[in-house]
TrEMBL record:
The keyword Transcription applies. It comes from Deinococcus sedimenti. Residues 30-124 form the HTH arsR-type domain. This is Transcriptional regulator. Keywords: DNA-binding, Transcription, Transcription regulation. Signal peptide: none annotated. CDD domains: HTH_ARSR (cd00090). Pfam families: HTH_5 (PF01022).
Amino acid sequence: MTTLTDAPLPACDTDCRHPDAVARAQAALPSSAAVEAASALLKAVADPTRLRLLAALAAEELCVHDLALVAGISESAASHQLRLLRAHRLVGYRKAGRTVYYHLADQHVTLLLQNALDHAQERER
């Protein structure tokens, strides 16, 4: 069975060059620093365990113990993953006594997560 990913990619029939289009595309590129930062952020999200933690936090604020239970990992592993997510500013936290509660950092993270999951689920259909 042939899938879309197995089909050959179409190519130009000629050595076509569109200098205006190339110039517009180059002008639209983000800075190298922005590309590097976005790449690092996407790498942080690209781990199934971290993605589960983020999806759980999209539902509600949770402590490390509860996040570990939801993700099916140890509290130590959850803490390690949360440190990485905090370093990339994907999650925030608040302390209530000795308990630390985590939440998604902002609406950008919520949209990134929702778009990625929506896109993946569309491909399942």
